[in-house]
Design brief:
Elements lengths: L3 E5 L8 H18 L6 H6 L4 E5 L23 H18 L7 H14 L10 H13 L14 H15 L11 H12 L6 E6 L1 H10 L9 E4 L27 E6 L23 E6 L9 H5 L2 H14 L3
Parallel strand pairs: 1-2, 1-3, 3-4, 4-5, 5-6
Helix pairs in contact: 1-10, 3-4, 3-5, 3-6, 4-5, 5-6, 7-8
Length: 323
């Protein structure tokens, strides 16, 4: 039986799912070739080695009644969303500040951004959390791995994209049928999974949270779950809000590999095995660091182009063929 490969995207603006799928496959091909799996690439890119799906849910972040694509990347919907983003950034910065390899410039930028998130004078007022987040991000975008020239275009847009994490975890925004935003997103991802045959799942950023929650209700087999740039370990803003608690590996998962980049500030506290319980089959996350070149390291394609990521992915697809 041909296995299914499902890519689950993370935060970001409106996207062309087909174009993103092509990009992710090209990156995987690059990493697979580097891992010595060049002979298997035609099967992946040609579609006969795996049934490849891109689970797209980005359009669900658009605010009902809004025009164009702006609301998908605009500021958080509420002060509660902004507060959660501020918590996420604060913990990410605090974790990064513990790195003994920080340069003097990185240390200065991180400390300044941390102060901007919680001004010593306690300045508040309408929209204060949102303002503090934008101010801090303006500073953080000068860091390696976050520079605006390589990724997000501005601090305000970045705040809106990070706000998608808050909007998902705050479990609000019900539709006319009462289904909340997070439930609608999981329904999209669940529809891409194979209920009968094996499914290899590759999830990125916010998609790692979505995939984890979705897989807890999945009855098919997942021989490999790969998570990239995951915020699951963020102890205050993310970890306690993920369901179900305590955080555990879904029963359907046989193996879980988690990858993080030092310069990916979204992946704060990346060693997920410290926070996630194994399932009954003793499968749990195994985390490994990768290092990407360039100013912008968070995109999934940067991770997938790594031999350490694409190699196990290709091996899992090969092993699942005919199973």
């Amino acid at each position: 039986m041909k296995p299914r490969l499902v890519f689950v995207h993370g935060i970001g603006g409106p996207r062309d799912a087909g174009a993103d799928l092509d990009e992710w496959l090209r990156a995987t091909a690059h990493g697979a070739r580097a891992a010595g799996h060049g002979s298997r690439l035609s099967g992946l890119t040609g579609g006969w080695a795996a049934d490849v799906r891109f689970a797209y849910y980005g359009d669900l972040f658009r605010t009902a009644g809004a025009q164009g694509t702006g609301p998908a990347v605009g500021p958080g919907r509420s002060g509660e969303d902004d507060e959660l983003v501020a918590e996420l950034l604060s913990e990410a910065i605090d974790e990064r500040l513990t790195d003994p390899a920080l340069t003097a410039t990185e240390l200065r930028v991180l400390r300044h951004a941390r102060t901007q998130l919680a001004p010593p004078d306690g300045a508040q007022g309408a929209g204060a959390p949102g303002r503090h987040v934008v101010n801090a991000l303006t500073s953080l975008l000068a860091l390696p791995g976050l520079r605006a020239g390589g990724g997000w275009l501005s601090a305000r847009l970045t705040a809106g994209m990070l706000g998608q994490v808050a909007r998902y975890l705050n479990r609000g925004e019900p539709d006319d049928a009462g289904l909340t935003l997070d439930a609608r997103i999981r329904r999209r991802v669940a529809a891409s999974l194979d209920a009968d045959g094996p499914t290899v799942v590759v999830a990125h950023s916010l998609g790692t949270v979505v995939a984890l929650e979705t897989l807890h209700a999945h009855e098919g087999r997942v021989p490999l779950l790969i998570t990239l740039g995951s915020p699951l370990g963020v102890r205050t803003a993310v970890l306690p809000r993920v369901r179900p608690q305590p955080l555990a590996t879904p029963a359907c998962v046989d193996r879980w590999l988690n990858f993080w980049d030092r310069d990916d500030i979204v992946a704060a506290r990346p060693a997920l095995e410290r926070f996630v319980l194994p399932n009954a089959a003793a499968a749990g996350p195994v985390s490994a660091r990768v290092d990407s070149d360039g100013a912008w390291v968070h995109p999934a394609a940067k991770y997938l182009a790594q031999a350490a990521v694409a190699g196990p992915l290709m091996e899992a697809l090969t092993a699942a063929t005919g199973s």
